Amino acid sequence: MTAEREESDTHRSGCPINLTLEVLGDKWSLIIVRDMMFGNRRHFRELLSQNEEGIASNILADRLRRLVAEGVISREDDPSHKQKAIYSLTEKGIELLPIFAMIGAWGRRWLPVTEALSIRAQLLEEGGPALWEEFMDELRQEHLGIPTKQRPGPGVRERLYAAYQEVAARQPSAQL
Amino acid sequence: MTAEREESDTHRSGCPINLTLEVLGDKWSLIIVRDMMFGNRRHFRELLSQNEEGIASNILADRLRRLVAEGVISREDDPSHKQKAIYSLTEKGIELLPIFAMIGAWGRRWLPVTEALSIRAQLLEEGGPALWEEFMDELRQEHLGIPTKQRPGPGVRERLYAAYQEVAARQPSAQL
DNA sequence: TGAGTCTGATTGCAAATTGCAACTGGTTGC
DNA sequence: GCAACCAGTTGCAATTTGCAATCAGACTCA
Q1: A160 within domain boundaries
Q2: What 3-state class would DSSP assign to B13?
Q3: Which of A46, A151, B44, B71 is the most exposed place for a label (fewest CB within 10 A)?
Q4: pTM for this model (two decimals)
């Protein structure tokens, strides 16, 4: 399994849509990035056991390896815990946010989503590019350590999560 | 192989991102929609033999079946040719355009795209939502037969194709 | 009428990927 | 010292993919 393939390798074509699908075109990669981005999961066990869709540990390990190789996320040791790994989004990964916003909007419109799990997508859609930028800045601070303009009040993820909690509380029977 | 699954079926979760991935999360489905949308391919043979990435006929047949079942495209008989099928985008399929625009922008920024094959993505990015709407109107007219506001001059797809041709002509060695 | 072509696929088969459950070797906190 | 926790690995069956060959029913032209 060759790890790095930076430029001209065996690509099906040089089309941006095709190349993106070669990196992210499967049923799990974007799920993992979603959990890191919106759920703030940074460790293997968090990603494994808190995942809504029930990802298997071998698939998770494989996808994390691939995403690191593709430069969408990075992996480093946790200084406080000798065999604990911390996964972080790279800038390349953070900039997937607009794609998530669009995918969320489409899914919300055309697929049988549950209300609780789609409230975040709705807020992201309504917030538009300005909100996306704010969230991406927040992610850059958390994942890349880049200090950005301080904004008052709770962060974007926090607000999204609060909205989710509110809806979920109203519908105790629904899936968490 | 059960065909229809409209509402509550065996979904991994009700998250809009997950549900979208369940429909489109593989390496070929979006490629086919892309060819229909930007390449104006409407028949099996066109999709098969003009495809840039070399899709196999069994995969194409399977994905067309799935996309029809999911309501992203529709299939009807060609009246002029008894065993010829015409595939059309549905409104659900047409509204994938903003996702393509975002994916194209991300791929262009982060992956080793070729200039000729990414010029369309660039124009779509620069044109913004106004251009997307114009293109979607054009697609509604072509695929759904919905008459829309007449606009003067060549259509969006035509303009995108012309730009591609111009770049490709400048670089005869590059992939078509 | 019959040969050749075009149509949307299907078939057979090897290789790769997925999903599931059990397990591993090491670390940490008590 | 020991239970709990950590990031994965391993083995295996089932499914999916990729590839090439093939198919049967229209159409085309002579």
Answers
A1: yes
A2: coil
A3: A151
A4: 0.93
Q: Which of A106, A113, A118 sits opposite B96 (nearest CB)?
A: A106
Does A81 lie in the same domain as A38?
Answer: yes
Q: What is the pLDDT of residue A51?
A: 97
Same domain, A121 and A138: yes
Rounded distance between C-alpha atoms, residue B176 and residue B164, angstroms? 9
Q: Does A103 contact B16 at a Cβ distance shorter than 8 Å?
A: yes
Task: Tell me which of B8-22, B47-61, B98-112 is least confident.
Answer: B8-22
Domain holding A48: CATH number?
1.10.10.10
User: What are A100's two structure tokens?
Assistant: 């998530």
Domain ranges, residue A66? 12-90
Q: Chain A, 33-52: which have a CB under 8 Å from a chain B CB? A: 34, 52
For B57 and C14, how far is CA from C1' in angstroms? 18
Tell me, yes or no, whether A122 lies in a domain: yes
Answer yes or no: do A13 and B117 touch at CB < 8 A.
yes
- Token digits of residue B172: 């005869």
Q: Residue B25 and residue A35: Cα distance in Å, rounded? A: 16
